[in-house]
Design goal:
alpha/beta, Rossmann fold, five-stranded parallel β-sheet, 15% strand, binds nicotinamide-adenine-dinucleotide, binds 4-phospho-D-erythronate, oxidoreductase, D-isomer_2_OHA_DH_cat_dom, NAD, Erythronate-4-phosphate dehydrogenase
Amino acid sequence: MLIVADENIPLLDSFFGDIGEIRRVNGRNLGPGDVRDADILLVRSVSRVNQSLLEGSHVRFVGTATIGTDHIDLAYLRDKGIGFAAAPGSNATSVAEYVLSVVSLYAEKCGLEDWTGLSVGVVGAGNVGGELARVLVRLGFKVKLCDPPRQDREPENADDFVGLDDILGCDVITLHTPLTRSGAHPTEKMIAREELSRLGEHQLLINSGRGEVIDGSALLERLQQPSAPTVVLDVWENEPGIDPALVEKVWLATPHIAGYSLEGKMQGSEMIYKALCLFLGLPVRKQAGQFLPQAALSQLCFTSNAGQNESVEVALRACYDPRRDDARLRLTMRGDDAQRAEGFDRLRKEYPIRRECSSLKVQLKGSSKAIQDSFKALGFKLRM
Ligand SMILES: NC(=O)c1ccc[n+]([C@@H]2O[C@H](COP(=O)([O-])OP(=O)(O)OC[C@H]3O[C@@H](n4cnc5c(N)ncnc54)[C@H](O)[C@@H]3O)[C@@H](O)[C@H]2O)c1
Ligand SMILES: O=C(O)[C@H](O)[C@H](O)COP(=O)(O)O
């Protein structure tokens, strides 16, 4: 059995080595010639999987080690009876930690003593937005959720949701919807000129969903006007050929790595491995946990002199600080179009190991219950 797989899927040999022969490919340049004799195709978000890629091939199962599925023509796969699996929720914690770290930096930039004073509007309350909202609420933030599809599906919970209008009044607006172009609530260009005109200089807009959910040219225009909001982008229109003018204007710019914790990426591989085993009628013998290495930083210790905000900030940023990714991306923006696109993909391919908060033990000597609760909410392992 031939398994054609994106070379950037971690643990390919460990999970799939005894299922079939693995041929590694560059997912960005995947073409019909690469998959013609394949039985199984494993991709990431950079490969378009549709009729023009698959027609004439043997492929009978497609797995994407990602949460998003906008790169896959699901209707075509269904029509052709090709098996399919994605990795829902695999890197949700990673994205939530990305946003939390950004919010902590924003609170610092605004000179806030207590970051929970910020109101947060979450657009898209699924695996990522839902997890983020749960953590924020446990930390004491005021959180609003906007999710019209869920509101339609769950009329009994209608009061849990607000409209986008209401969200646009929050201090922080964070986008966690899939990219959709049809249906009752399409998200493509959901944040366009009109919505951007409602945001002002005391607001933060974060997009770690998909780039096309914001109209990029309207955003650039808004950022060139007075009283522009602060903007953080992890996802972009036209990746990897992103607009350098937009990079220059946003506060933090990262190369689509919000979900790139080691745990998140390994869970993505595990989920498609399990789905493939089910598809082929094979027993599931492996799990991501057995391959997870010890974290480079294993323990932090705070004395009773550490304040709540200070200690949470230090621990959160010890796990993930988006300023490093921002600095690396800005360096790649110096070349021509081709060099910039190559740089964007290289940063993603060579992404350093990043671990989630759950990998870090935190000792809190003589701490208050409030401090302990904040650390627990963020997923750290507590040692008293
Ligand atoms: N930057 C990254 O690294 C990264 C990582 C993971 C996921 N993502 C993106 O984030 C998206 C969300 O991930 P998830 O795991 O939460 O997906 P999910 O499917 O669990 O949740 C998405 C939610 O968005 C809601 N939604 C759909 N249309 C909406 C609209 N018009 N307005 C408001 N809400 C709407 C859905 O009802 C659903 O509840 C993914 O589809 C993917 O594109 C990005
Ligand atoms: O949808 C997802 O899971 C994320 O956007 C994912 O992190 C994308 O990573 P990629 O497949 O582009 O490497």
